[in-house]
Structures are given as structure tokens and as C-alpha cells.
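C-alpha cells please, single chain.
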Amino acid sequence: MFLKWLVYSGVSFIGLFAFQWMLYTGTELSKTRVLFGYVFPSQYFFWFAWAAVMGIVLIIPNSVSFYVIGLAYNEWFKKVWILSLTVFATSAISTFLVAWLKFSEVPSKGSLVGLGFIIAGSLISVFWR
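Here you go.
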């Protein structure tokens, strides 16, 4: 059971980390509205083009994530709470890492304690039945 949860949480983490990295990269690029050397006339057109780039780049991680989510729900756990709490925890972890690696932001002590509670809740949902 734990190995299946690790696979699910790992795939979820990779997909969420890639999405958040691309989202915040787009946020940085939107300051100048320049993408591949082209200056877009407005934020709307910039974000439309960036969403297309994100869709292409994230097609593989999203496809794998969707497959594993279906497998995890239908065959492994058969409970949506395990999936939801695990995605919540992996999202919080990936947000922490993206903020740290991309923006050099270190979370407060309270944020780290909250992250610990989220991870603990996810693990409890897997093991305590």
C-alpha cells in the first residue's frame, strides 16, 4: 500500500511542480510581455500564447498524472479522500520548493508547521483505515 501511495504522490508532485514552475515563469515573463522574442500587445494575448506553450510542455506530465489518478482511485485505494489529501500535500510541498528555488523565498516557521500537518494528514489517511 505504501509503495502505491509513493508512486501516486511522486507522480502528483512532478505534475504539480512542473505546472507551478511554468505558471510562475509566465508571471515573470508577463512583466515584459516578451515570448520567444515577440512582444505581445497586451497581457491577454501574452497569457493566451503562454497557456498554449504550457499545454504543449505539460502534455506528458498531465497525461501520466491522469492515468495514475485513475489507477489509484479505481484499483489501489478506492477512496477519494486519500487522493485529495495526497494532492493537497504534494501541492504544498511543490509550492514550497518552487518558491524557494525560483524566488529564494523561505517560508515562516508557521508555514513549515502547517506543511508538516498537511503531510501528516496525508500519511494518516493512507495508513489508518
